Amino acid sequence: MKGHVPTPREITERMVEELFDEHPPEEDDRILYPGVGDGPFVSAVKRYCLKRDLPTPEGTAIELDPELLAKAREQNGDTPVDFLEEDFLNISEEDIGQFDYVIGNPPYVPIEGLSEEEKERYKNNFRTAEQRFDLYILFFEQALNLLADQGRLVFITPEKFEYTHTTSELRRLMASYHVERIEHVREDTFDGHVTYPTITTIHDRDADETRIIRRDGTEDTVELPRDGASWASYIRSGETDAYDYDSGVTLGDVTKRISCGLATGRDTIFVQSEEEVPEQLVEEGWTYPTTSGKQLTVNDGPDSNDLIICPYDENGNLTTEDELGVYGDWAELHRDELESRSCVKKGKVWYSWHENPPMDDLYGVEKILCKDVCDPPEFWADREGDIVPRHSVYYIIPDDGVDLEDLLDYLNSPKARAWIEENAQKAANDYYRMQSKVLRKLPVPEEFGKTKQTKLI
């Protein structure tokens, strides 16, 4: 299975203890090892049961990689486990039945790592395969489908399922079980990977309270929402105390620009779907792909089906009326409404936008985007630079030498999110209001500042 990352022995031991300590295995119990890799959890279960003189549950270990499966079989040949070379996501209950225990470290594979055939198949077969899903999300759903009555599941995965828009359906599914415990473990748990891992325990029984264990050692008992809403505010109370923000470098130090997107003064006219925009406007270069804040979350990224019809050149200069051509013919159809805008009454040209756009920053430059009012704060990349963000979107342009992917990962990290939630203004319904002046002050790791030494000095 692609995305395999070996699980440290310390973690396998802790997870098996979490699985069994209060619910020890009995004769005839069954355990499932999805994406078993080279068998670290099989070995940990065997050690646990031998040490305590408990029956070892009959196991089924599933792995698509034949080399890893061979190692697992070789190291655990004396254990009552069937080793199957299969794709766990293609297995059904009719094939292998249900299990009293499930334990594992699902593969982390974002949607970019999947073929088009895989994406289509998973979207047809899994309710959690929404938007830009990751394979570990589907492993959760598949494993829960195979969990017996009163069964227990313990997985270690990235913590992003707690709060991203993509994983709302997974949270809804989890809430139909008892999410018994969520433990945030060290960021460097997996050598060479900074994954912000979380150990999640799910029990197939009727209960509401979830025990939260944070990386700073603090604990809470909470009731998580069941409607797919973000769990972040329930889990992270006081989390900024766990982080050291004293790097001496801020987001403003390592970016060229942090601004909100353009304002047309009448999006209902200037923004249309690709199907609605007259072909001549597209062919003659009067349109650009665009996104709003709402579309960022709905589409889980900047790609939308909308175009913005733009009278400005690549430097942000308004095209003169005698050079409008087909744009002028189109704009005349809407002239009365365009002239009714407040910006025109204050002196703007009738076919212009509410604000002159900095097109040299807005278009043709890779950037990071976020919604202006959000919960939780979440960031996406415009890697091609061809999206023109609208006023409900903030865009961040990294400085030369600052890697966009590294900065994006940091902005979406628990550390950055905790700081934003602590420092951003609150909007209605406890949402967070993104503002340039706040984002510029966000502390970032010192290594981002190494490309900015001249500026910092």
Automatic annotation (TrEMBL):
Locate the Type II methyltransferase M.TaqI-like domain: which residues?
75-185
Which PROSITE patterns does UniProt cross-reference here? N6_MTASE (PS00092)
Alphabetic keyword roster: DNA-binding, Methyltransferase, Restriction system, S-adenosyl-L-methionine, Transferase
Pfam families documented for this protein: Eco57I, TaqI_C
For this chain, one GO molecular function annotation is: methyltransferase activity
Provide the TaqI-like C-terminal specificity domain boundaries: 359-444
Instruction: Name one process (GO BP) from the record.
Output: methylation
Source taxon at top rank:
Archaea
- Enzyme Commission number: 2.1.1.72
Top EC class, one word: transferase
For this protein, what reaction is catalysed? a 2'-deoxyadenosine in DNA + S-adenosyl-L-methionine = an N(6)-methyl-2'-deoxyadenosine in DNA + S-adenosyl-L-homocysteine + H(+)
Cross-referenced InterPro entries: DNA_methylase_N6_adenine_CS, MethylTrfase_TaqI-like_dom, N4_N6_ade-DNA_methylase, SAM-dependent_MTases_sf, TaqI_C
User: What PANTHER family does this protein map onto?
Assistant: DNA METHYLTRANSFERASE A, DNA METHYLTRANSFERASE YEEA-RELATED
Q: What is this protein called?
A: site-specific DNA-methyltransferase (adenine-specific)
Originating species: Haloarcula onubensis
